[in-house]
Amino acid sequence: MTSLTAAGTERGQKRLVLGLLKPVLSLSLVFASFLMLHRLAEKDAFGLKAGGPRAWCGSDCFTFKHSVSTEGPTEQGAPRSRNGTAPSWDAQVLNCSEDASVSSQDWFRRLDSRFHQFVLRKHCRYFPLRINHPEKCTRGHVHLLIVVKSVIEQHDRREAVRQTWGREYETESGSVRTVFLLGTASTGKDSRNLQRLLEYEDRLYGDILQWDFMDTFFNLTLKEVNFLKWFNIYCPRTRFIFKGDDDVFVNTHNLLELIRFRTEERRDERLFVGDIISKAAPIRNRQSKYYIPKELYDGPYPPYAGGGGFLMSGALARNLFRASEAVQLYPIDDVFLGMCLQRLGTAPESHAGFRTFGVTRRRLSPMNSEPCFYKQLIVVHKLSPHELLRMWNVTHGDSLVCAFVLGSGH
Ligand SMILES: *[C@@H]1O[C@H](CO)[C@@H](O)[C@H](O)[C@H]1NC(C)=O
Ligand SMILES: *[C@@H]1O[C@H](CO)[C@@H](O)[C@H](O)[C@H]1NC(C)=O
Ligand SMILES: *[C@@H]1O[C@H](CO)[C@@H](O)[C@H](O)[C@H]1NC(C)=O
Ligand SMILES: *[C@@H]1O[C@H](CO)[C@@H](O)[C@H](O)[C@H]1NC(C)=O
Known about the structure:
By secondary structure, the protein is of the alpha/beta class. The protein has helices at residues 6-17, 21-45, 53-57, 63-69, 100-103, 106-110, 116-120, 155-163, 191-205, 220-234, 252-264, 314-324, 333-344, 371-376, 385-395; strands at 129-131, 142-149, 169-171, 174-184, 208-214, 240-245, 248-250, 272-274, 276-277, 304-305, 309-313, 349-350, 354-355, 379-381.
C-alpha cells in the first residue's frame, strides 16, 4: 500500500531527498548491527549452544524451550470443542441489507457519496466462506502462517509468491504454511470465469481462502476481520503470522531469525512488528485515494503498521480478534488494525527491516536492483512478479557476495 496519511507522504519525500546511497548503507548497518547484537547476546547466554544443549542436559536446560513446545503438535486433526464437535465457520450473512436508519441522518447526507455504500453496510462483518481450508494449521505443527492479501485476477502475483517467500516448507521449529485471502470478483469483471480459474488454482495448491464479499477497496477491512475469526477457529496452536501484500519481497530467512531471537528472549507472546506509522492524521484531500471525511473520523490515528507486511504472534492475533469485535469497521484496513491494537493496549513495534514505504517509488532507484539491500531486510515493497522472481533468485544464489554477511551463514 502506498502512504495513506499526511505523515506517510512526508516520510516518503524525505527519504527520497536524502539521496539514495546513504540510506542503503545506513539501513544495512542498522540491521546488520541489530542482528550482530542479538547473535552476541545469544553467544553470551548460551555459550555451549553449539554443542547441542539437549545432548548433555536434556530438555530441562532451557525452560523457555519448554514453554514454547507446550503449544506444539499435541494432537492431530481439527481442534475440538468441549462437546466433541469441531468449531467451524458459522457466518451466514448471505444477503447484507442496507442499514436504513443511517441514511436519514444529517451527517450521512453531508457525507461524500463514495462512503455511502461503506456506511450503509458497515454492520455486515462476517461472510460465508466459498473456499476454505480447515486443515491448514492442523496437519503437524505450524510455526509460521504466511497470510497474503490478494485479489482474484492477480494470479501471476500469487504464483510468484508461491515460488519465492510463500513457499511451504518444514523448519526445525515446525512448518511454514501459506494462505491467500480473497473476496469475490468485483462488478464489471468476468466473474464466472475468474471464479472457475480460481477454483482450479486452489485444487492445484490448496492455499486459497475466499469469502463471499466483493473485493473492493473499502471492503479490505472485511478481509482483516474475517481472517482473524478464521484464524481463531482453525489455527488454535499456530505460533506466528506474517501478513503481507502480494507485491512485496520478503526475506523469509531474516523473518524466521527475528522470530527465533524473540522466542529465545521470551519476547514473543505479544509480538507485533512492522513499519509503524505514528502520529498520523486522516487525509482530508478529496483527490486522494485515502481521503477520509471529518464525518467519518476526527482526530489522530493510533499507531499502525504499513500494510506491506508485518509479523505478529498467534497469541496476539487471538486477542486481536476479540478486541476487533468491539471496534467499528473502518474503511482503511491498516488503520483499523491499529485501532484494535490500541483497544488491546498493545503498542506495535517498529523495526528497520520492514520497508513498506517510500524506498522504491523511483523506478530507477539503485535499491530496486541492489540484491544486497534485499538480503539485509525483511520486507520491501513494491515489486512486480517478474522483479520478485529475479530478486529472489539473485539473493538466494551462490554468486552474490555482500559486504555484510547476515544470518546464521546458510
Ligand atoms: C457443540 O457446541 C457448539 C458450540 O459450542 C454448538 O454449536 C454445537 O451445536 C454443539 N454440538 C452438539 C452436538 O451439542
Ligand atoms: C436482500 O435483502 C433485501 C432486504 O432485506 C431484499 O429486499 C432483497 O430482495 C434481498 N436480496 C436477495 C438477493 O435475496
Ligand atoms: C462489500 O461487499 C458486500 C458484499 O459483497 C457488498 O454488498 C458491498 O457493496 C461492498 N462494499 C463496498 C463498500 O464496496
Ligand atoms: C534463476 O537462476 C537460474 C540459475 O542462475 C536460472 O537458470 C533461472 O532461469 C533463474 N530464474 C529466474 C526466474 O530468473
